[in-house]
Amino acid sequence: MTQQEFEHIVPRLRPRLKDIGRQFFGNEEMAEDIAQETLMRLWMLRERIDCNATLSKKESQTDIEPLAVRMAKNLCVSEWRKLKVRQGNVLPIETMTHEDIQRDVELKEQIARLQRAVSQLKPAEQRLFRMRHEAEMDIQQISAVTGIGVRSVSAMLSTAKRKLLEILYPKGGQQ
Questions:
Q1: Would residue 147 be called left, alpha or beta, if left means φ above 0 and alpha means ψ between -120 and 50 degrees?
Q2: 81-100 burial string, b = 16+ CB within 10 Å, else e?
Q3: Which of 7, 63, 15 is nearest to 35 (CA)?
Q4: In sequence order, what E strands does the chain have?
Q5: Confidence class of residue 99 from pLDDT cuts 50, 70 and 90?
Q6: pLDDT, tens digit, 9 for 90 and up, residues 10-21
Q7: How many Å apart are CA 69 and CA 64, to the nearest integer?
Q8: Mean pLDDT for the chain overall
Q9: For residue 136, is it left (φ>0), alpha (ψ between -120 and 50) or beta?
Q10: Of the given ranges (80-84, 88-92, 154-158), which has the lowest mean pLDDT?
C-alpha cells in the first residue's frame, strides 16, 4: 500500500476504530489510544498490505477494514490485560549471575523511571513520543498516521522531550 493510499483510508477508518475502543473501554481517551495504536501498526505493515491498484479507493478501504478492526479488537484485549495484570520477563534467578542481576535491576529501574516520566506527559505527547522513539517513525510518518500537521508533530515532540528532561533532571534536584 502506498503512503497516499494509506492517507486516503485513514480518515475513514479512524471513526470505526475509535468506536471499537469506546465500546470496549467506555472511555474516549482509551478509544483514541486504540485508534492511534492500530493506525500506527497498520502504517508499519503498509508495505506488506496489498491494495490492488485496479480497485477503487472505497474497495481498498473495504479490504483493509477487517484487518484494522481485528487489530483494534486485539489491542483492546491486550490493553485490558495490561491494566489487570502486570507481567515481567524475568529470568529464573538460579541461571543469572550477580552481575546479570545487578544489570537487570538497574535497567529495570531506568526503564521504570523513564516510564514514570513519560506517564506524566499529556496523552497526545505520550503517543507521539512512543511513535517516534519506540516505533522509530519519522515526523512525516507520524503526521500521516495521526492526521496532525508536520510542524505540530515536531513542536509537540520537542515539548515532550523538554518536559521529560525537566522531569528526569530537575534543576537542583535529585536524578
A1: left
A2: eeeeeeeeeeeeeeeeeeee
A3: 15
A4: none
A5: confident
A6: 999 999 999 999
A7: 9
A8: 80
A9: left
A10: 88-92
Q: Taking the alpha carbons of 94, 97, 100, 106 in that order, is the dihedral positive or negative?
A: positive
pLDDT in tens, 112-149: 888 888 889 888 888 888 888 877 788 988 888 888 89
Could you give the C-alpha distances from 50 to 41, 45, 61, in angstroms and in order?
15, 10, 11
Alpha-carbon distance values, 132 to 34, 153, 161 (Å):
17, 10, 11
Helix (H) or strand (E) holding 81: helix 57-84
Residue 8 clears pLDDT 60, i.e. is over it = yes
| Number of other residues whose CB lies within 10 A of the CB of residue 53 | 8
Residue type, 135: A
- Per-residue pLDDT for 95 more than 50? yes
Locus of grid cell 517516534: 132
Q: Does position 170 have pLDDT exceeding 50, yes or no?
A: yes
Secondary structure of residue 8 in the 3-state scheme:
helix
Q: Cα torsion for 116, 121, 123, 127, to the nearest 10°? A: -80
Using alpha carbons, select from 120, 125, 112, 40 the residue that is nearest to residue 75. Answer: 40
Query: Grid coordinates 470496549 are at which residue?
Result: 24
